[in-house]
Amino acid sequence: QFFMQIPRDFDEAAVLDGASSWQIFWMIMLPLSRPALATVAVFSFLGQWNDFIHPLIYLNTSEKFPLSLGLRYFQQQPTDAMEPREHLLMAASLLMVAPAITVYLFAQRYFVRGIVMSGIKG
Fold first, then answer.
1. Helix (H, G, I), strand (E, B) or coil at 28
2. CB within 8 A of 33, min separation 6: which ones?
3. Who contacts 4 (Cβ-Cβ below 8 Å, separation ≥6)?
4. What is the pLDDT of residue 113?
5. 107 with 35: CB under 8 angstroms?
6. pLDDT digits (tens, 9 = 90+) for 72-88
7. pTM here?
8. What distance in Å separates the CA atoms of residue 74 and residue 89, rounded to the nearest whole number?
9. pLDDT beyond 60 at 119
10. To 10 degrees, what angle do helices 34-49 and 86-118 make?
11. CA-CA distance, 71 to 69, in Å (whole number)?
């Protein structure tokens, strides 16, 4: 979908300059599509990082649980003294959210670049 929005003039100009199809893709299309590729990469990472159902289905030992499933497992475990463990749950939640925030901070410039490029009319 994103490649259909790139003006055809870039392709035609590259062909007139003698570029091959491979060069057009690597030198024109790929750099122009970096914001879209960064968005797909961030969403794929976040989808896998926050996945809950697949590990729940496939894993049968709690030692192999990812952080999302381990957090729920830890929340459901009863304690002997029935002490509140909210501070431990909040610390684990911070560990769960920290990589997502870090990835967003590094990919934010690609999001902004994609928004700026979307206003260009061909």
1. helix
2. 2, 3, 6
3. none
4. 66
5. no
6. 887 777 666 667 678 88
7. 0.68
8. 8
9. no
10. 160
11. 5
The per-residue pLDDT for 98 is: 92
Q: How confident is the model at residue 117 (pLDDT cuts 50, 70, 90)?
A: low
Q: 35: exposed, middle or buried (C-beta count within 10 Å: 0-12, 13-18, 19+)?
A: buried
Q: At what angle do helices 67-76 and 86-118 cross, to 10 degrees?
A: 150
What is the 3-state composition of the chain as percent helix, strand, coil, each rounded to the nearest 5? 75, 0, 25
CA dist 74 and 14 (Å) reads 57
Residue 30: how many CB atoms within 10 A of its CB? Answer: 11
Residue with tokens 């957090």: 71
| Domain extent listing, the chain | 1-32, 34-118
DSSP sequence for 79-118: PSS----HHHHHHHHHHHHHHHHHHHHHHHHHHHHHHHHH
